[in-house]
């Protein structure tokens, strides 16, 4: 393509995007009924004419235009005309959502901490920020990352002793990603943001066969093969996005990850967070060793019976002796602390299994759910294990206003990901996924505006959901040719500010009960649809390998995790979530420790997690009453 042709193409793309943005603004001010329709048009325009770089420039321009308060008030007045009071939009700037809470070490009282959804918060008696890692300007190149933070470890030990001396509970918090009160504590709260100093390949006291990599057997694509994996040591307070930076710096990558990297690694492990791939366990399954501070300020290094640490070398290690770190290599104890829901102590560091950096090819195709269901039923495991990653997004509703019978069938999006050996250098707008989301998520008023769009146009949610699925389609046979990149970029589905306006509940079902669960969800959703209560997003089926941790949702078998998503502020979504949760639990669902809206009680927990009583014994050994918060106490006493 000549220079002139490239310039004309660039000019045409900018002109088209400019025109559609102007039209959208005009509709917002003068004809608000057409806003949802024009958002759909803008989405298509961005998909075909706007690259990532162009979107970034447009985001900055739009944020500049909406910064003046009078502009936002003008838009508000137009949008809120004839709207119910509880559905009116307040277009405050959401800049604070892009800025993380950074807590000062010096301010130990009158602090407030809350989870990302805002339904749980703590104003603890005392607030501590131990550790010596760099958080605000984190870099794996920092020389301190090669050292272990023994000074920080001693800080945590003294904090636990202080809490017990004053007869107070103590608890560590990370990113507050859980929807439940699993992290809440009103006595002493420990922010882990600076417990991230250590970022290095694990070598100290490690058995010789693990020091320079070790061979593992994996089963992807229904074929067994060998891979060489490595051990990596990281701080317990490390954010997943920082961990990814550190791994990348050393040439490694996570074996799998969830859709967001804003969590802390300890929080993800403590609740058995997962990705999708029936041959890959949850994040907790990658943990090979955990160093924690338990009751009495005792420090333990906990591993499976045949752990990665050499007991003889560890017994001679001067720092381990000096800091009185006890090595425990026991399956039951390790399986208890692996998913400890924050109650077995404060995780100070851990050793993870990682693999050399790798690339993935992602393909997404829109299909009729009943067709996919019939194919999956033929040989469930073989079907979902045909790829390294496999997941399905299902529209809970059918678009009954569609023009043809084919379009009225229930739609779903099938996503597959496999190893890629060839780097794709071709770049154009069609190869960027999450088109409208990647654009809107950077706009300062987007989160406030999103629920208004769904509330104003709630009868069109089935159609809008189909359209959103259609826009994610990207497979080898279309213009995009699939999405190929480094694994960390393919697996992270982060949506900027929009992440904080979506919320979800999640449940596990054995593979032989997946379709029963899906049918139940669809039935409940369609019943509520008659009363104009709808979810504002498709729900997902993700598949995870069995994990031996006592409190993992995957403890009993390979599992299908079903995640139901909506947007905060959409009328009817929360009561629909509550209704769905009750029905799914009655049908034998295993709830996610961090994604639930109904109260938890002992009978439900013991039914869902058969090893809960065994876990309680180990919790008493490691954490005891010192680390039992109100959430756990209510379960124990109910």
UniProtKB/TrEMBL annotation:
The keyword Oxidoreductase applies. PROSITE patterns: FAD_PCMH. Residues 138-357 form the FAD-binding PCMH-type domain. This is FAD-binding protein. Keywords: FAD, Flavoprotein, Oxidoreductase. It holds the Pfam family ALO. Coiled coil: none annotated.
């Amino acid at each position: 393509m000549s220079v002139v042709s490239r310039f004309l193409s660039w000019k045409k793309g900018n002109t088209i995007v400019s025109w559609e943005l102007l039209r959208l603004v005009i509709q917002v001010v003068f004809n608000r009924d057409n806003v949802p329709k024009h958002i759909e048009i803008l989405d298509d325009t961005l998909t075909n004419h706007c690259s990532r770089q162009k979107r970034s420039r447009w985001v900055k321009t739009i944020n500049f235009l909406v910064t003046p308060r009078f502009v936002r008030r003008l838009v508000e007045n137009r949008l809120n005309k004839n709207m119910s009071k509880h559905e009116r939009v307040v277009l405050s700037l959401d800049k604070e959502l892009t800025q993380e809470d950074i807590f000062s070490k010096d301010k130990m009282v009158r602090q407030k901490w809350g989870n990302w959804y805002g339904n749980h918060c703590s104003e603890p008696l005392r607030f501590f920020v131990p550790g010596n890692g760099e958080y605000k300007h984190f870099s794996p190149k920092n020389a301190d990352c090669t050292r272990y933070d023994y000074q920080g470890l001693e800080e945590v030990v003294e904090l636990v002793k202080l809490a017990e001396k004053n007869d107070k509970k103590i608890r560590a918090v990370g990113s507050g990603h859980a929807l439940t009160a699993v992290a809440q504590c009103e006595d002493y709260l420990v922010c882990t943001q600076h417990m991230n100093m250590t970022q290095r390949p694990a070598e100290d006291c490690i058995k010789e066969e693990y020091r320079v990599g070790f061979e593992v057997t994996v089963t992807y694509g229904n074929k067994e093969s060998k891979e060489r994996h490595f051990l990596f040591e990281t701080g317990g307070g490390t954010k997943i996005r920082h961990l990814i930076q550190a791994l990348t710096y050393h040439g490694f990558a996570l074996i799998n990850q969830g859709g967001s990297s804003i969590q802390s690694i300890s929080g993800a492990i403590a609740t058995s967070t997962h990705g999708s791939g029936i041959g890959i366990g949850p994040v907790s399954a990658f943990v090979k060793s955990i160093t924690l501070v338990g009751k009495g300020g005792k420090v333990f290094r906990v591993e499976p019976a045949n752990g990665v640490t050499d007991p003889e070398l560890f017994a001679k290690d001067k720092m381990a002796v000096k800091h009185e770190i006890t090595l425990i290599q026991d399956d039951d104890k390790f399986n208890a602390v692996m998913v400890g829901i924050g109650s077995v102590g404060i995780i100070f560091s851990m050793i993870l299994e990682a693999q050399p950096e790798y690339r993935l090819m992602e393909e997404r195709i829109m299909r009729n759910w009943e067709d996919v269901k019939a194919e999956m039923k033929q040989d469930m495991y073989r079907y979902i294990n045909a790829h390294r990653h496999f997941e399905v997004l299902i529209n809970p509703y059918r678009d009954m206003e569609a023009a043809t019978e084919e379009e009225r069938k229930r739609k779903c999006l099938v996503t597959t990901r496999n190893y890629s050996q060839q780097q794709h250098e071709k770049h154009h707008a069609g190869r960027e996924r999450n088109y409208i989301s990647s654009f809107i998520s950077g706009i300062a008023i987007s989160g406030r505006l999103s629920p208004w769009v769904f509330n104003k146009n709630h009868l069109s949610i089935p159609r809008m959901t189909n359209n959103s699925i259609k826009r994610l389609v990207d497979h080898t046979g279309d213009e995009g040719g699939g999405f190929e990149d480094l694994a960390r970029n393919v697996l992270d589905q982060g949506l900027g500010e929009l992440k904080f306006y979506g919320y979800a509940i999640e449940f596990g079902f054995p593979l032989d009960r997946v379709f029963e669960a899906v049918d139940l969800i669809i039935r409940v959703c369609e019943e509520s649809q008659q009363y104009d209560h709808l979810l504002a997003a498709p729900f997902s089926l993700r598949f995870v390998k069995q994990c031996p941790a006592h409190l993992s949702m995957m403890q009993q078998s390979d599992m299908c995790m079903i995640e139901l998503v909506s947007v905060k502020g959409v009328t009817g979504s929360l009561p629909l979530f509550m209704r769905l949760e009750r029905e799914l639990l009655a049908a034998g669902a295993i709830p996610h420790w961090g994604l639930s809206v109904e109260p938890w009680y002992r009978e439900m927990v013991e039914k869902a997690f058969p090893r809960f009583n065994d876990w309680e014994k180990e919790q008493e050994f490691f954490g005891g009453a010192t680390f039992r918060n109100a959430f756990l106490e209510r379960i124990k006493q109910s």
